[in-house]
Amino acid sequence: MLRPEDLIHSINKKCKNLFYNKFYLIPSTGHYNISVYRIQGTANALNRFEIPFEPVKVLNWFDNFWVFLEVKFIYQELIVERKKVKQIHIYISLSIFEGEETDDIKNQLFRAEWDDYQNPNEKHSQPHWHITSHQALEKTFTEYSNSFDNGDFLALLEEEKEKLFDVKNIHFAMNGNWQNDESHIHKLDDIDKITKWLQGVLKHIRVELEQ
To answer: How does DSSP assign the chain, residue by residue?
Structure first.
């Protein structure tokens, strides 16, 4: 079984060079059966993972781009054929933000996630992307409306938003291996594989952002 402390050690060791050795995952508030590790950030942001939005600390990467990374382990005991079987469910969430250091509400552009529910019938591709960049435009319109004290404009904006299809809840496949007749689900069961995936995603994102 994959040991959480070994995975965190591997991520910290092999990803720090991508952040000039500033990258480090540290324990965060968890629960009796949940362990959470988060990046040691230096600036404020809002993680729009679920409502209410959660204040988090993000780490500056380059220019005005910021990173938030969370790795969560949920421990569960099942009874299989009258025997206790331990399981560890792993959830990885990597978010990219854009904004000035002094901006408390930085724009959350997108998330890369890899969750392991250990469910062979899982319908969402693992790993996957979530796109949230449209929220930056919403913020701009809201601030514009408030600056002119124009409640009618804000109401019109909300009305138009209701007409749009919100893509933030879609799990866009990142590594669906359909061309080889394989599943869209990849298990989180190998430390080296997980760490290389995270390194690759970060390198790929930086190339795209620097264009």
So the answer is: ---HHHHHHHHHHHHGGGGTT---EEEEEEETTEEEEEE---EEEEETTSSSPEEEEEEEEETTEEEEEEEEEEEEEEEETTEEEEEEEEEEEEEEEES-TT-SS-EEEEEEEEE----TT--S-BSEEEE-THHHHHHHHHHHHHHTT-HHHHHHHHHHHHHS--GGG--EESS--GGGT--SB-----HHHHHHHHHHHHHHHHHHHT-
